[in-house]
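Run 5-carboxymethyl-2-hydroxymuconate isomerase through structure prediction, thanks.
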Amino acid sequence: MPHCVIEHSSSISADALIAQVFSGALLSELFEADGGDIKVRALPFTNHQSGTDKIDFVHVTLRILSGRNIEQKSMLSQFVLEQLKKLKLANCSLTIEVVDIERASYAKVIV
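Sure, done. The structure for 5-carboxymethyl-2-hydroxymuconate isomerase is below.
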């Protein structure tokens, strides 16, 4: 856990975004030390609008099991944001949100 979903402008490399989001989640030390439980995927968008100007965007949703406090969630957001800033994107909006997955209703199996 977590499930990291990146929505982004198609003009930005998904591979670079995936690597940076994975790194930020790992650096937070909220998940397994080997990173084996961190899942990252990217969804590029060719059609989008951000206000009245056409600028690129990256929005990351970090879905984590419930039970973490607000400080841990904020720290996770900041670690991921700092890694994304290393890409030195220009004219681009970077946003991060952390969303709880209710433990009682979450199911997982590897088949």
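Residues 12 and 56 are 8 Å apart (CA to CA).
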